[in-house]
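Risk register update: the risk that structure generation would not scale has been downgraded. Supporting records follow, first protein first.
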Amino acid sequence: MNMKRINQRDFIESIQKLRKTESKKGEAFYDMAIKLANNGFKMEAYILILATWNFGHFRYVVKNFNIQKFKKKVEKVQYSIDKMKEETIRYINFDKYEKDIDKIYTNLAQIDGVKYTGASKVMHLMNPHLFVMWDNNIRGQKLKRHYQKLGIVKKGYWSSKRYGDDAKSYIHFLKDIQGLFGHLTYQDNTRTFAKAIDEYNYWNISRPIRKMQEAEK
């Protein structure tokens, strides 16, 4: 991604605006999921984040969601997760762990109710310091004219680049994120750096695009 690196002041101000403006309900579910994961209830945490933060997909399969199949997929990738447990988005060498990330993402995205957006959210709970969440807005899969109106694009921090849905595209996204945000200073005991990046992206990409779509209906 041939973009400018994110400005420190712009980063902090965006996060502060989000936390002052947005409803606390969504964040309450996130905090609950993190607490569950930290206390050993990982599967419960994953299901909670899917049912709340991936509701658009999960609602269609909730009655028939195959929990046992999901558990087997999680167990299948646990070794790869454990290998990266000390890694963070700022310092990880993605070339070293590309096969592991590919394996995790691909296995999770195969599950109905998880798919591509949900895979990144579950992966974030698996390692909140490393994996940054994404959605269709951030993947560049909306109308190009909407991206051209974004302040973040006008400033040169983002583009209307379109990422695919596969694991290689997610890895490419993570590499871009590392390049754009890795130089920033961030100190907050309530949120990881990877979560703060997600908040920045939501405030500057997902939120305004959704508002544009609503205004055009």
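Supporting record for the second protein:
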Amino acid sequence: MKAAAASLVVLTLNVSGPSRVHQGWPTRREAIVSRLKVEGADAAAFQDIWRPEDLQTLAEGADHPHRAYDAELGVAVTSRVPIESSLSTNLGEGRGTLRARISVSGREVDLYSTRLEEGDGPAAARRLAQLFRLAEFIRAQSGKRPFALMGDLAASPDDPEMRLFMDLLETRDLCVLHGDEVCGRTLGERRVDYILIPYSSRAPREAARTAFTEPLQTDDEQTPFSSHFGLRAKLAPPFFRLKPTPRPAGRLEALSEIAEVLETAKTAAARREAETGWLPLLGTREASAARLETANLTAVLEEVRSALIRAQRPR
């Protein structure tokens, strides 16, 4: 990559890959490879990719000789330029994120591939806990350099947990340009996939767009590349001068609200444990699961309250 052209084309896709090869996957994988060649991204974030051989095939198709991978979390980053370092973390319930650090024209950039828990009810509270931990991980890893958070966050832009997450980090959603959604749905009728960068007052010249939207024609029927559509964006030169805001304006209020939501979820989990604990067999298992959820929420609550105390300290 030439130093004079400090731009970076990135792509994210939840490939919905199998843990074991099944009928239809080889055809779908080859179709994804063909599309990767057309998209021509400099770096890609993949989610739900469970087999190293699948990652190798996709990386080679994208002409990305460098890769970082966490098989347990099913997340990966591949790149045309060398990956200087990588680090992954489990955010809870087997979901997590992987950070890959690259250098473009002498400037370090952190790329994240992330996969969070889907679902409503108790799952929404667990996802909020994952989003909090994700925000804290990014703040610790990328406090002094630009980053692009990519992947399947399992929540729509108008869901409460996404609003709180955006306030925690003060990021810009590249699928929103001048207040308008420009990417559309990526899973069913919702958009749950993102490319987020540090916020700046100046809007980027180019927004993200959906990718892998065309159906495949196989055996006289149409099938999708994946259960998700992908996203593609060009990070122009101004991106490389961005740094995260040390004290986002909405962070204190967001932390307070997160603590309230998680406290309510913890109380509900404790209630489920009490209501099901006396039932034989199934009730015992449900009580055990509720007890574990109560313990996990208690641990996250302590992290949130500690972060809240730090955020309240004078500048």
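The domain at 8-241 is CATH 3.60.10.10 (Deoxyribonuclease I; Chain A). On this basis the risk owner (M.S.) recommends closing the item.
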